[in-house]
Amino acid sequence: MKAAVLVEPGRIEIREVADPEPGPGEVLISVEGVGICGSDHSVFSGKWAAPEYPWIMGHEAFGVIEAVGEGVSDARIGERVVIEPNVACFECEQCRMGRTSACTGRQSVGMNRPGALAERLAISERFAWKAPDVGEDDLVCVEPTTVAMAGLRRLGDRALDRRVLVVGVGALGLMVVMALKEHGSDVAALDINAERLAMAQELGAGPVFEDERFDTVIDTVGSPGSVTEGFEHLAVGGTLMFLGLDNRPMPLDAQSVVRRQAKITGSLTYDHPGDFEHALELIGEGLNPGRVVTDRHPLGEAQRAFESVGSARGKTWIRVREG
Ligand SMILES: [Zn+2]
Ligand SMILES: [Zn+2]
After folding, report:
1. Predicted TM-score (pTM) of this structure
2. Domain region containing 227
3. Which ligand is nearest to the CA of 43?
4. What ligand is nearest to the CA atom of residue 96?
5. Is the separation of the CB atoms in 182 and 287 below 8 Å?
6. What are the tens digits of pLDDT across the range 95-138?
7. One domain, residues 102 and 197
8. 68 and 83 within one domain
9. CA 286 / ligand 1 centre spacing (Å)
10. Could you tell me which of 72, 158, 156, 161 has the C-alpha nearest to residue 122?
11. Three-class SS of residue 114?
């Protein structure tokens, strides 16, 4: 099969690679489209090392089940699915507590097992969800929407019933804005990129007033600059949640956190199966996260897609196969 493989940091080639085989309990998916997000870009750029080179990236995928492994009903062949790319072990302590996002044996498509930027992908059937009857732009946004919605779930309704500030409205931030609007929150957004901010405003995020403080701040970036900005706008007793995976030290001292009586928290991906179930339900009912898609590329242009993702106004995805 054809795949977009990262041969070294920053360089993708389209190559012929061996087809995956569906193991017991797995389905083989003919991949149609794959979204690109910040974590994929970190692998592309070499900021996060790939487990090996050449490496197949990509995890925000949808496609059609083409074959099934042992123990899976053939009734699923032909079903259009969206993948939940973090496959939990269901055996570790975290999994047994229901926190599969922290699974110690987690297999992540495109991170520690081969990714979705290929014509075919094998995955456990429990992690191949029946796609709702919505457009392709929506399907490619299911996974990042789930990340955003899981963050809101973990914050809890009380934190969302106030005015909420979203710092950073790249693709994930835009999903957060949409999920907040869907919840009925009053949302404001900040970003250093004016085009992205305009897009967040189209989705209903308002401006931040001078010296305004928020009880709830969601930082989707985690850079030194965004942390400073977010904390500056955090009210006394407020909650600052991080969704971005920046690894630089934070410009925050204990004294400031204590004086602000701030609650600082992080939210990693989502927990199986509730978060995907909930996101798919809302998307099936018309949430339409595909509104934030601005860039679509064919598989042959994967290199260009990754190079331009940082400057894209909204979400970028790669069409692997015509649906
Ligand atoms: Zn993602
Ligand atoms: Zn586990």
Report:
1. 0.97
2. 145-266
3. 1
4. 2
5. yes
6. 999 999 999 999 999 999 999 999 999 999 999 999 999 999 99
7. no
8. yes
9. 21
10. 72
11. coil
